[in-house]
Design brief:
By secondary structure, this protein is of the alpha/beta class. About 40% of the residues lie in helices and about 15% in strands. The chain binds flavin mononucleotide.
Length: about 230
Amino acid sequence: MNGRKVLLLVGSPRGSASSSHALGDHLLSLLEGHGMATKKLLVYPALGDDKRMTELLAAVDACSLLVLAFPLYVDQLPAPLIDTLQRIADRRQGRQGEMRQALAAIVNCGFPETLHCRPAAGIVRLFAAQAGFRFLGCLALGMGGAIGKRPLAEAGGVVRHQARALKEAAPFIAEGREIPLAVIELMARPMMPRWFYTGMAHWGWKRAARKHGVRSRLGERPFAEV
Ligand SMILES: Cc1cc2nc3c(=O)[nH]c(=O)nc-3n(C[C@H](O)[C@H](O)[C@H](O)COP(=O)(O)O)c2cc1C
């Protein structure tokens, strides 16, 4: 161990059964291989639980590197993650970053195009600047639904670009250096042809609608102007 500690905060409401967890956890194991001590916490259970939130905030104080892994919700960070980041930022106001902690992020979205993640990546960069973290970069990807809750190492060839990107990003992150643009671009590469992903997504929607007895109502447009 090199004495550096990484804290992973998983910002998905699905907790450890999420794509965010699969991606973040994979990066964590790679960072462990680079000599870092690792810790992982789920954001959602800490909200409304003072003891857990205190533990989370103390863990943020103690880490040398903070990794945020989260899904895109309505083009943004999920609200409970925003709340947590606000608490972290408030707590750090006026503090001199003695050891200058670093921050990296992984955001995945459900649409096929990675570019939907851009505003969220920008928000994390601003958070880092305002809360006194050195920003190492944000690894963003579309088609996040294709990962699901499986560990990344078990997701097979479909995540080949993402697995390689995380492997290439790990030494930079471990050394506190910015993630190179080429690695960010590799992470952003589609996992499969767009038509195939959207076809699967449509099939999934219809199947879920049938299960809940609303298959015939999928075409309704209650907010359409007449
Ligand atoms: C309430 C909600 C809002 C979402 N908003 C977006 C969105 O704006 N853009 C997008 O591409 N995906 C959106 N998604 C899809 C998720 O980003 C996607 O399913 C992601 O893979 C979930 O990751 P997770 O398993 O880490 O939670 C949304 C999902 C939910 C449940």
